[in-house]
Design brief:
The protein is α/β, with parallel strands linked by helices. Helix content is about 30%, strand content about 15%. The protein contains 15 helices and 20 strands. Strands 1, 2, 3, 4, 5, 6, 17 and 18 form an eight-stranded mixed β-sheet that branches. Strand 1, helix 1 and strand 2 form a beta-alpha-beta unit. Helix 9 packs antiparallel against helix 10 and helix 13 packs parallel to helix 15. The longest helix has 21 residues. The radius of gyration is 23 Å and the shape is globular. The structure holds ligand NA7. The site of ligand NA7 has 21 residues, from helix 5.
């Protein structure tokens, strides 16, 4: 911990991050009479929706679901304009929540946490920012987001490139105009799939560098239907409750069909896929009950999408290169607007890096497969060092000075997707072991924040100072997460869920699949007096 003249400010909770998680944690703590301070590295609240402002950035879960459900007046008053809200509207919503609940005076912006050490004698976290402020906190809540550290691959010679380099997750705040430009995009995940059709409309020429072909299902986005909005608002609480019963905490309006893809004729199967394709969104994966657990069923869904790609993309070689070969859903499914059709434009070219790997950069572009591709601007749509990247960049030390980098050497050990053995009174929101990656993340946040607040209330009621997961509970929990994943197709590809998108990152399945069972597990732990935890 650096020596500094600043005295440490005592707080009950230090909350790191002012995205949806940090905002709700602050509100909840205040309502419980706790002194809480949020610190946020950015110049505004909003988290993900502050940074990811590339063209086409929007949520892939329907707006009526991707919003807080804890306050009836809030959900009644707020009006979404589109079926899938775009980034500016989501950022306005985050700001509205901050204002509506009077949270601004508890948030310190432009303040990045540098480190936090657990002081066992005082039973407090001693934390400090990069700008020298210090806090002494009973509880440390990391609400820094599972997708908040952009992945900037170490491409050889990138520094030599003389054009502009942008990252989708760290997009400039002023408008970016690609008119008349030659643009290169590296990556074909959700961010790229949203950005590519819009960049293609503006740029003179667009070259997309694809490492792994991606599955995208249509969003069929459009203005929010007022009748639909009224119907949901007539019983918003019931709608939220039904969504919480779903595996992903969303999608109750289109629940999975309870029939195997292998139990119907090919004609019936196609008709059923087609019906959900017309509705759009993640519901396509619920066409049959076994798409995520049975590779043979999954392959039928994958082939359905590949047929769609071949029917959409005119050039057969490009269509074939765009056809993914891994199980559908194994990497996060993309929800698109005109992604595949964009490759029919004369100004768009796909470079398949599997056949022509990137060899290096030049001042004018990059060389792949022996060919130089020249462009004025390069967009890195290369995703995130997901779930662990942000935490591992902190000087975070638990009991006995143990560094988080050592504790997580072989992968992010955790208990209940929130706690870490040897790091008492620390809660990591929607991090590894949580269901965040597979759920409507706002639903996941609300559940975890409520659980954490309840846990602190229980400790206070019993006059206890600390709560700490045991190493055994941590090992058991991580094994549980991996056992659940092993029953699915999620281990059969190289996804960010596994850390496989980052060279050298330990391969460990991080998110838990199945929101309702997770909620029940957390409730059970609390009911039984926090089994798997030591209270002190
Ligand atoms: P993703 O989904 O991780 O996509 C990143 C893309 O960048 C993906 O196509 C990667 O290929 C590609 N990539 C990453 N590193 C490289 C290198 N070194 N060379 C070439 N291509 C590379 O990130 P997004 O931002 O699109 O979406 C993240 C989440 O945000 C998404 O899942 C939703 O939850 C919202 P790969 O597939 O790894 O071969």
């Amino acid at each position: 911990m650096p020596e500094t003249a600043n005295p440490a400010r005592p707080v009950d909770l230090l909350i790191v991050g002012a995205g949806f998680g940090g905002l709700y944690m602050l509100l909840k703590a205040r309502r419980q009479g706790l002194a809480a301070q949020v610190i946020e590295a950015a110049g505004s609240v909003g988290g993900t929706w502050y940074h990811n402002r590339y063209p086409g950035a929007r949520v892939d879960i329907e707006s009526m679901e991707y919003s807080f459900g804890f306050d009836e007046a809030l959900q009644q008053d707020w009006h979404w304009t589109e079926r899938y809200a775009a980034q500016p509207e989501l950022l306005r919503y985050a700001n509205h929540v901050a204002d509506r609940f009077g949270l601004r005076d508890g948030i310190r912006l432009n303040t990045r946490l540098a480190g936090a050490h657990f002081d066992a004698s005082a039973q407090r976290w001693q934390a400090w920012s990069e700008t020298g402020e210090r806090w002494s906190a009973r509880f440390l809540v990391l609400a820094a987001g599972p997708l908040s550290t952009p992945n900037r691959p170490d491409f050889p010679g990138l520094a030599d490139f003389r054009g502009r380099v942008l990252h989708t997750a760290d997009w400039p705040h002023e408008a970016v105009d690609f008119s008349g430009q030659r643009v290169g995009v590296i990556g074909t995940g959700s961010s790229a799939v949203q950005a590519i059709p819009l960049i293609a409309e503006q740029a003179a020429q667009l070259t997309v560098f694809q490492r792994t072909a991606t599955y995208a299902v249509p969003a069929h986005n459009g203005p929010l239907d007022p009748d639909f909005e009224a119907r949901i608002k007539a019983d918003y609480a019931g709608f939220r409750a039904r969504n919480r019963q779903m595996m992903g905490g969303f999608g109750s309006l289109l629940p999975p069909n309870r029939i195997s893809a292998l139990a119907v004729s090919p004609e019936q199967r196609d008709a059923m896929f087609e019906q959900r394709w017309r509705i759009g969104g993640f519901g396509v994966l619920g066409t049959f009950s076994d798409l995520i657990v049975n590779p043979a069923a999954n392959e039928l869904a994958g082939e359905f999408v590949r047929r769609k790609i071949r029917a959409t993309v005119h050039d057969p070689a490009t269509a074939e290169a765009l056809c993914p070969r891994h199980p559908i859903g194994c990497k996060r499914l993309c929800v698109d607007t005109g992604y595949y059709a964009t490759y029919n434009r004369p100004n768009v070219r796909l470079v398949d890096l599997a056949a022509a790997p990137i060899e290096g950069f030049t001042p004018a572009g990059l060389v792949a497969g022996g060919e130089e591709h020249r462009f004025d601007s390069l967009v890195l749509a290369t995703g995130f060092d997901a779930m662990t990247g942000t935490v591992l960049r902190l000087d975070l030390r638990g009991r006995g000075g143990e560094r988080i980098q050592d504790h997580w050497k072989a992968g992010p050990l955790n208990c209940l997707g929130m706690a870490i053995a040897g790091f008492p009174n620390l809660f990591n929101l929607v991090g590894p072991g949580s269901t965040s990656a597979f759920t409507n993340v706002i639903v996941a946040i609300e559940h975890q924040v409520d659980w954490i607040a309840g846990c602190i209330a229980d400790l206070d009621a019993q006059g206890l100072a600390t709560i700490e997961a045991t190493p055994q509970a941590e090992a058991d929990y991580v094994a549980h997460v991996n056992t659940v994943a092993a029953r699915t197709i999620y281990l059969n590809c190289n996804s960010w869920y596994l850390g496989a998108n980052i060279a050298g990152k330990p391969r460990m399945f991080m998110p838990l699949f199945g929101f309702p069972a997770y909620v029940e597990k957390c409730a059970e732990v609390a009911r039984q007096g926090y089994t798997g935890f030591v209270l002190g």
